[in-house]
Design brief:
Elements (H helix, E strand, L loop, with lengths): L1 E9 L2 E3 L2 H7 L6 E4 L6 E11 L2 E10 L6 E4 L1 H7 L5 E2 L8 E6 L4 E10 L2 E4 L1 H7 L6 E6 L5 E9 L6 E5 H6 L7 E5 L1
Parallel strand pairs: 1-13, 2-5, 6-9, 7-9, 10-12
Antiparallel strand pairs: 1-14, 2-6, 3-4, 4-5, 4-8, 8-9, 10-13, 11-12, 11-14
Length: about 190
């Protein structure tokens, strides 16, 4: 079975617990813009991620707060930071690398750095219509100047907006832009 799916490009970002956020910031988490996943948003708060003297500034915090800390970067970012984080599904922090989160207020070390696995968000209703289950492996066919097929997994949530997420490395490799579409292969 095949069905069209929009492809969202996920830049480096951070999910934080309220506790760690409060260590790093004095102001409340403030909405910059909503994300396609209902209830989720890009905040105005940004920080710096560090590995020794290597750092990347301007990394956006996403909301709302989570019950875990997670730093999602691309492979290119990892090379810049001279680290080798594992590829993991969101929320799976097994083997996640330690990384320092730094603001003007504080620096906090968290074991939270991963390369996010490609995934396709959807609601339970959409999953039922497609005949898929949570964490099922699927493929996404990309047609264009650099066509290809990539593996992904299904991520079902009550607020799941039907959309595939790839990182900036994948977007560059396949020449994707913010209007990209692919075909979900089940």
């Amino acid at each position: 079975m095949e069905e069209k799916v929009t492809i969202g490009i996920s830049n480096r970002h951070i999910h934080l617990t309220k506790e760690v956020y409060d260590m790093l910031f004095d102001e409340p988490l403030e909405l910059d813009r909503p994300l396609n996943q209902p209830g989720e948003f890009a905040s105005k708060q940004k920080l710096t991620i560090c590995n020794g003297e290597k750092e990347i500034s301007g990394v956006r915090v996403l909301g709302p707060f989570r019950n875990y800390n997670q730093v999602e970067i691309s492979r290119k970012d990892a090379l810049s930071l001279k680290i080798n984080p594992p590829v993991r599904a969101s929320g799976d922090l097994q083997g996640a690398l330690p990384i320092v989160l730094k603001t003007d207020k504080a620096a906090v070390l968290v074991n939270a750095c991963i390369l996010a696995q490609r995934h396709v968000h959807m609601s339970p209703l959409k999953a039922q219509a497609l005949g898929v289950v949570d964490k099922q492996r699927v493929q996404i066919k990309i047609i264009g100047d650099r066509s290809g097929i990539i593996d992904a997994y299904v991520k079902i949530s009550d607020n799941g907006y039907y959309e595939a997420h790839v990182d900036t490395d994948d977007a560059c490799a396949f020449l994707l832009d913010s209007e990209a579409e692919g075909t979900l292969i089940i």
